[in-house]
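Justification of resources, computational component.

The compute hours requested in this renewal are based largely on the per-chain cost of generating structure records like the one below. Each record pairs the submitted sequence with a full structure-token output. That output is archived, and it is also reused by downstream analysis tasks.
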Amino acid sequence: MAIANMTDMLIKARAGKYAVGAFNILDYNSFKAVVDAASELNAPVIVQISVKTVKLWGYDAIVSWYRQLSENVKVPVAMHLDHCKDIDVIENCIKAGWTSVMIDASSKPFEENMKLTRQVVEMATSANVSVEAELGEIGGVEDDIVVAEENAHLADPAKAELFCQEIDLQCFAPAIGTAHGVYKGEPKIDFDRLKTIAGRTPVPLALHGGTGLSSDVFRKCISLGCAKVNISTQLKHAFINEFVKYHQAHPNEYEPVKVLAAQYEQLKQEVKENIEFFGSSGKGE
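The structure output for this chain reads:
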């Protein structure tokens, strides 16, 4: 198992009506927390890296974490480039050792989105790298990508079907009403649209904007074909909040290793809770 792309794990998840958690990490410590959580629960997992994180740490450093943490575990671990609009960054990640990438050309006209996605699939296929693409624009804030509510739009089922027929994708992210970041009100999920899209394509679907959704929403989306669930904001909050919490409890202590240990434990616990809820615990072999 160990190092893998996300193709097989998502096919199995969609068929089994559970979801694989895709968790955005921030550093080596959070990477380790995600892999250890998955290993302890015998679950497949996707470790996601934002473009901002790639630019902070560098391609080689992140790939070295991946290999060191994932090569010897018994569960499949995919490393996925999240929401990338830059073809050059995608190409560099593929060459460096990423096993999965997302081309986000959702802000482009439909034909241009297809053209750019097809270009990424062509460069990824020979390297055995899986590809995710998006149709429609998901609102909210995802790192440096900001989509105002009035500019967000949902995926058209007919175009979604054509997109997945024309391009050999391993994961497809249709906009169905979720949002990145923290929800300011009750999210309005278009379940009928999700059901229609899932009925028109066998490609495993991704649910973006997972942080803050209710358990009922998660269950319904997973039952309708969402095999990949993205969790980012929740881990960012845990990363910062646990740092602050530890320092407030120990104001005169300046031992960074203890703070890192507290962050690791909190992140691992939250990842494990999500894995168990998504139903992928025990599905790692």
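The chain has a mean pLDDT of 91. The CA atoms of residues 257 and 263 lie 10 Å apart.
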